[in-house]
Design a protein that fits this description.
12 strands, alpha/beta, globular, 9 helices, 17% strand, TIM Barrel, 12-stranded mixed beta sheet
């Protein structure tokens, strides 16, 4: 494998987020319109063999860390088979999964045994009725049970991601923070990103990370956690004295992290998107299906990757909903 490639701004790009479906069994306020979206035709969705084939070529270009996303990836059948295929690729060092967690109690062990390393669970409330209201679906989801199942299956670390929304769930910041006092989980508070057609949430719902940390600190003294790196993302971590878990904040709104961006995204229909909140993307599906190498396209895409996103100016190219690219 070659050394990891740098993009046109000198950033090392080694992390690929792979959306395996645009569909989801939730309709979360900040992620998808209540009526859903027009789903991609099956013929346009990459097969597991195609995903593995593309990743195999990108691994030779320096990609070593993967995250499987959606939509909701667990609703696509037999994801464990894809995990095993990706694990067998030379150069792939880490495979993670982002999920709403509904099916984790039944699938976590299967995924771990196939080669999954770790998991991120979207958990925007600990209250059943509020979970159903935010998701616009009542599926009896229990985020604590999902995290426990992942931990028991051997997935490590287990992360709980809470999108903080003022007046909707921000009164639970302290409750989520307390989870880290009892469990070796990493609770991450994510600033809301009001994009596309998500009219149910606006800029007025954004709670900046400094306020989140101030409110979490009511539980106990928080110190910056300078322990081992816990993943591929931009979170800043903190820990209560003696706590087995940690608290993280992800700040796309108040403090952008574009300067240290290390990722690109492969959409379910085979487009390489170099910035979540930009309009630059490259079709890899057509050349791959035609038998052409995608490595040169990847290298050119990195050279063209923008320096920073334009979310704060609300210039979000071609993105109707976060569910389209897995966030």
């Amino acid at each position: 494998m070659s050394n990891p490639h740098l993009d046109g701004h000198g950033r090392k790009i080694e992390y690929l987020r792979i959306s395996v479906t645009d569909k989801c069994n939730f309709r979360c306020l900040y992620c998808m319109p209540p009526e859903g979206l027009q789903w991609l035709p099956k013929s346009e969705i990459l097969s597991y063999e195609e995903i593995a084939g593309i990743v195999s070529q990108l691994a030779r270009e320096g990609v070593s860390r993967l995250r499987i996303t959606g939509g909701e990836p667990t609703i696509r059948p037999s994801i464990d088979k894809l995990i095993a295929m990706l694990r067998a690729i030379d150069g792939i060092e880490d495979i993670a999964l982002s999920t709403n967690g509904v099916r984790l109690p039944e699938l976590a062990r299967l995924y771990h045994d196939a080669g999954l390393d770790r998991v991120n669970i979207s958990a925007d409330s600990l209250k059943p009725e509020r979970i159903a209201a935010i998701a616009r679906r009542d599926m009896g989801f229990d985020p604590v049970a999902a995290a426990w199942a992942a931990e028991q299956a051997g997935l490590d670390p287990v992360k709980l991601n809470m999108v903080v929304m003022r007046g909707i769930n921000d009164d639970e910041i302290e409750d989520f923070a307390r989870l880290t006092l009892e469990h070796p989980w990493h609770v991450r508070f994510i600033e809301l990103m009001p994009v596309g057609s998500m009219s149910g949430v606006t800029w007025e719902h954004v709670v900046e990370s400094e306020e989140v940390l101030d409110r979490a600190s009511r539980v106990g003294h928080l110190s910056e956690d300078r322990g081992p790196r816990r993943g591929n993302g931009p979170a800043r971590y903190y820990r209560f004295d003696g706590a087995p878990g940690s608290i993280g904040v992800i700040t796309p709104m108040s403090h952008t992290y574009c300067a240290s961006c290390n990722r690109v995204r492969l959409t379910a229909d085979g487009r390489l998107r170099t910035c979540l909140f930009g309009d630059h993307e490259v079709d890899l599906r057509t050349p791959f299906r035609g038998g052409d190498a995608v490595g040169p396209l990847f290298r050119q895409a990195l050279r063209d990757k923008p320096l920073e996103h334009e979310l704060l100016q609300m210039r979000v190219g071609g993105l109707r909903a976060l569910s389209e690219v897995g966030g």
